[in-house]
Specification:
The structure is a single chain. The protein is of the alpha/beta class. The chain folds into 2 domains: about 220 residues, Glycoside hydrolase/deacetylase (TIM Barrel, Alpha-Beta Barrel), CATH 3.20.20.370; about 40 residues. It is built from 9 helices and 11 strands. The strands form 3 sheets. Strands 1, 4, 5, 6, 7, 10 and 11 form a 7-stranded mixed sheet that branches. Strands 2-3 form a two-stranded parallel ribbon. The protein has a two-stranded parallel ribbon with strand order 8-9. Helix 6 links the parallel strand 8 and strand 9. Helix 1 runs parallel beside helix 7 and helix 8 crosses helix 9. The longest helix has 21 residues. It starts with a strand and ends in a 5-residue tail after the last helix. About 40% of the residues are buried.
């Protein structure tokens, strides 16, 4: 049996054209795209599940995981649509942003949790872990977990590093902070036999074609190879340039209409 699971990573869901106030336009898919992706899952016989649910469920179920980073306000309506389709998803939030303009509030998150959504940690603030001292990293994981559990009364067991930036022994750091899984930004499929400490995801962008998402759900091996090769190039650029220089270059490239 194929043990691989496609894990999709979203950020925000905009209008029919993808416009979404307060969100990075590059990462905000359109409402049409999002509805199509839910339909693609159904047409491929895949249940839409959160990673948290998959970790608890029988492996026999055929599914695709939906995850969302950052806690943008548009995630609330997206969660409602997922629930209407009988599914669930993980929403990784930064407690420091909750209730601020363009972000979900605690009442929104309580409603989402009550509807079966998994509310998990993206760090206390949206900062790159590899820019921090070890004690600051521990605080990002520990403080965010406590804040979410105190506010929602639901367990926080999965961590997603902001920007996909990780530190040495990310699994050990997360485990000591009370987590049981890490959703990374590593590109590829999640092979459950490899464990839950580096769950690969595929970022869905405004420019991601529906046909490409369909190939991800079918786990097309050539598509996966292409994605991994591209990710390797970008990861090398991040290491060589450093976070600040890479982010500046990315902003310039996206402003010129190029992907980064």
């Amino acid at each position: 049996m194929n043990d691989a699971i496609t894990v999709l990573m979203y950020h925000a869901v905009g209008d029919e054209r993808g416009a979404c106030e307060g969100a990075d336009a590059h990462y905000a898919v359109s409402s049409r795209q999002f509805a199509t992706h839910l339909a693609l899952a159904r047409d491929n016989g895949l249940a839409v599940r959160s990673v948290a649910d998959i970790l608890r469920r029988d492996r026999a179920e055929r599914c695709v995981a939906f995850t969302f980073d950052d806690g943008h306000a548009s995630n609330g309506p997206a969660a409602e649509l997922i629930a209407r389709h009988g599914g669930s998803a993980d929403f990784f939030i930064n407690p420091s942003n909750v209730g601020t303009p363009h972000y979900l509030g605690w009442s929104d998150l309580r409603d989402m949790a009550a509807a079966g959504m998994s509310i998990q940690s993206h760090g206390q603030q949206h900062v790159y872990l590899d820019d921090l001292a070890p004690g600051e990293v521990d605080a990002q994981l520990g403080d965010s977990r406590k804040a979410i559990e105190d506010q929602l009364g639901t367990p926080v067991t999965i961590f997603a590093p902001p920007g996909g930036r990780v530190v040495a022994d990310m699994a050990g750091v997360a485990r000591r902070a009370g987590y049981s899984a890490v959703c990374s930004s590593r590109v590829g499929l999640w092979h459950r036999d490899e464990g839950p400490w580096d769950i690969a995801r595929l970022a869905v962008l405004l420019g991601t074609a529906d046909a490409q998402v369909a190939r991800w759900m079918r786990q097309d091996r050539w598509e996966m190879a292409n994605r991994r090769a591209r990710h390797a190039v970008l990861s090398s650029a991040k290491r060589l340039l450093g976070n600040q220089r890479y982010d500046r270059l990315r902003a310039q490239l996206l402003g010129s209409g190029r992907d980064a």
